[in-house]
Structures are given as C-alpha cells and as structure tokens.
Amino acid sequence: MEILQYAFMQRALLAGVITGAICSVIGVYIVLKRLSFMGAGISHSAFGGVTLGYILGVDPIITAVLFCVFSALGISMISRKKIVQEDAAIGIFYSASMGFGVFLIGFLRGYNVDFFGYLFGNILSVTTKDLLYMSIVLGIVIFFIFYYYKEFLCLVLDDESSAVAGMPVVFLNHLLIGLAALTIVVSLRVVGIILVSALIVIPAAAARYVTENFKTLLGLSTLIGVSSCLIGLLLSYFLDTPSGATIVLTATGIFGISWLLGKKS
C-alpha cells in the first residue's frame, strides 16, 4: 500500500485502468474483424505525428491523433477501392509514417525529446493532462460502442449481410477504425508505439478461448486488459523492469492460461 502514497503511482494506476479498458473493448472488434495487423500499422503511424508535433511546437498527442486517424482512414479507403490489398496498404502507410518521423528527427537537433518513452511507453510519466485525454477518449469509445452496439455486432459478424440489410457499413467501418486510432494514441504513454497493438489484440484473443458469448467476451476482455495493466505495473515497480514490456508480457501470460483452459474445455 505504500506505493499509493506517491502521486505518480496514483496517476499510473488510474492510467492503467483506463488504458486497459479502452484497448480491450476496441480490441474485441478489431480481433473479430481480423484487423489486428491494421492496429499495428496505425500505432506505428503515430511516430510521424509525434515528431510533427514537436516540429510545429504543438502538443504531440494532438498531431498524433490527426496523423493516425488520417492514416487509418487512408488504409481503409485504399483497400476498399481495391487500389492495393489491405495488407499492402497497411505496409505502405506503416513504412511511410515511420520514415517521415525519422526524417523529421533530423530537424530536432538540440531538442531534448523523449522519443524512447513514446516508442516503448513510460506509464510512470503519465501527467494529469494525459489522464484527461484518456478519460475523454474512454467516454467517446463507450458512447459509440453502446449507441451502435447492434450495428457493430452485425458488422464484425457479417458485413456483407449488414450492407444488404441497409446498414451504413462504410461509415461504421470508418468509425470503428477512427475509434481504434484514438485508443492507440492515448495509450502511447502506457505501453508505447511498439507495444500498444499487443494490448489491443491479446486481451480479446485471450477472452475468445474462454467464451463465445459476445457480451461476456466484452466483459472478460476488459477484465483481462485492466488486470494486465495493473499487475504488470506492480511487477515493473517491484522488479524495476520497463513498465510497457512488463504489462504486455503479463497479458501474454494470461493469454497462455486462457489458451490452456480453453483447450481443456
């Protein structure tokens, strides 16, 4: 209990709860829609947005959000119009964004920028402003998930039948990808650009081995995501290990347990 006396640990624990909840809820739809690779592509696109923010002298989180949303929508539109295959589109935006970010770093000579924290996460450095961003995105995600609950469910199960039924499939796809982009950006402080896609995919994948009921899947995925963040944070504190990596490894361990339980059943 002594760690709760520190303000930075209080912020870190709250950030872990919020991030675990957002990522795991969105992750259910990403996994069922088979967009896991897109999550990785969007997260790496954030690097270009972060460096652009430092160049322009604005909050890098804001530019990262814009960069990720435009990248995600670009991937979706290009693949939908069959210009190139979806995996190729992701690879193009993934590589271009990372290259753009590295290119801009050359103009930041003399600036003390913590790019390592953005790449691998540093939950202990979470600020009150970061928590505000996370809370706003959590509210946005929960609102749209509940407002379009039936539509999103039909979308991930069978988007072709949903289109025939008259649902705005294109709009729903873009909305889901946009929510994923927002989730990824506000989670950068916790697990970083490199690892954030894992926190989106692993809890949902682990929950699928335990249940096939969609509502239970959402709840269990959220529980796994939040637990992974909290347990991983506490382990990193006592073991003096990188927080982002410890959180992801904890989630991976829970996935292994879920796989074993699912295999036995």
Description:
The chain is an all-alpha fold. It has a single domain (2-260), classed as Orthogonal Bundle (ABC transporter involved in vitamin B12 uptake, BtuC), CATH 1.10.3470. Helix content is 82%, strand content 0%. The chain contains 12 helices and no strands. The protein has helices at residues 7-32, 36-56, 60-80, 86-105, 115-120, 128-147, 149-157, 159-164, 169-186, 188-208, 214-239, 243-264. Helix 6 packs antiparallel against helix 9. The longest helix has 26 residues, at 7-32. The radius of gyration is 18 Å and the shape is globular. 43% of the residues are buried. The model has no long low-confidence stretch (mean pLDDT 84).
> Any idea what the CATH architecture is?
Orthogonal Bundle
- Name the overall outline: globular
Q: Kindly provide the radius of gyration, computed on alpha-carbon positions and rounded to a whole number of angstroms.
A: 18 Å
| CATH domain class name | Mainly Alpha
Give the helix tally. Answer: 12
User: How confident is the prediction overall: mean pLDDT?
Assistant: 84
The proportion of residues in beta strands is under 5%
